[in-house]
Amino acid sequence: MNTNGLLENIARFKTGRSKRISSYARGGSNNDFITIGAGETVDIAHIRGAGVIKHIWITTGHEDPMHYRHMVLRMYWDDETKPSVESPLGDFFGQGWGEVYPYAALPICAAPQRSLNCYLPMPFRRSARIEIENDSEHRCAAFYYYVDYEERDLVEAELGYFHAHWRRRLNKPAEDRENEWLVLGNPHPANLTDAHNHTIIDAVGRGHYIGVNYYVDCPTPIWYGEGDDMFFIDGEKWPPSLHGTGTEDYFNTSYSPKVVFCHPYFGFPRVNNDLGWLGRTHCYRFHIEDPIIFQKSIRGSIEAGHAGCLTLDLATVAYWYQTEPHKAFGPFPNRKGRANMPKIETTDIHNWRAAWRELQGGGTLWGNEPLPKKFLKKLADKGASGRKRLAPAANQTLAAIQLAAQEKMLNRRKRKTARK
Predict the structure, then answer these.
(1) Model pLDDT, residue 390
(2) Residue 61 to residue 30: CA distance in whole angstroms
(3) Rounded CA gap, 137 and 141, in Å?
(4) How far apart are CA 247 and CA 287, in angstroms?
(5) How far apart are CA 123 and CA 145, in angstroms?
(6) Cys staple from 363: which of 64, 105, 168, 355, with CB 3.0 to 4.6 Å?
(7) Residue from 307, 308, 302 nearest 283 by CA
(8) Cis peptide bond upstream of 333, omega within 30
């Protein structure tokens, strides 16, 4: 009988003993939660002996609307002093930017009404400790949780330790020049390195990478994709063993998707509702059937647009298993370093896009800073007042300038096509 199937294994007898640590009220009341003060750190589980955590469930009642980004989840195995898991609480469970929205993947799920679940197995041989830091100015009035695990006499040597790491980077164009795929009429310089990529995972040891939650905040209507994924295995040089063809392709989709979709292994649980691809999009992929295996090390990353040509606010949580000890993660960003970037409005985009076309890819990169002096001078020469930021009254003038620039670009393309 084949016992390798997911449901087939339900019938197989198992060893060990099922246990749970939860926030239930020890005195029998219905106050089945703990309270975590502002700035306080607590252990929600500290297990001695060998075993495997099989499921974690959490829900919260917090006075801070950004508490999913302000609360930090850490996990430690076998009395280690550096965490094997470190991430904002929400990002780990598929809730980006401190927001709340449905998310349904096979290993991790965010159910309605702020219910967070993780089914990834987490083996330990001597101890396991799960820590929550409430890095907020407000208390967490109610923190509910289950930690379901199995006690075992022995954890097999072939079971790796679970790891997860949150990274965040405001990527800027590698050539300091914003350039969506061929929009400016000439390709961006080729990228034959991962030096300017957003790093997803950088680990040392034996193990396998199993997936990522990828949160992108795009400050313009420009398509944020076309960024190739790259995975360098065991210290190899260029080219990497795994080189992809674009952001959307790595997440098992194609052609600039903008539709909410959740598959057990990949999906887009949150897409932007603004102009073009302006705003926030959440993508995920889990390598359940195709883990990326490494014997000594792995370095995985992704470009910010084709050849790193865009400005993007990228945050990721990578998930993997490996041997211990692991490479330390480095300093965890403080609350300010985890804060969301300012929201870009359509008026900002109108101003930015005109400046971008006039300067052929220069100008402002996030979209709400003062306009470049070079562009302001152009406006002053056309009768504008030369202010640092355009007032709404100047929008008609700006629209005419933008339209003229677009027509000029289209005429250049027509002449180029005619010559061919």
Answers:
(1) 35
(2) 15
(3) 12
(4) 16
(5) 19
(6) 355
(7) 302
(8) no
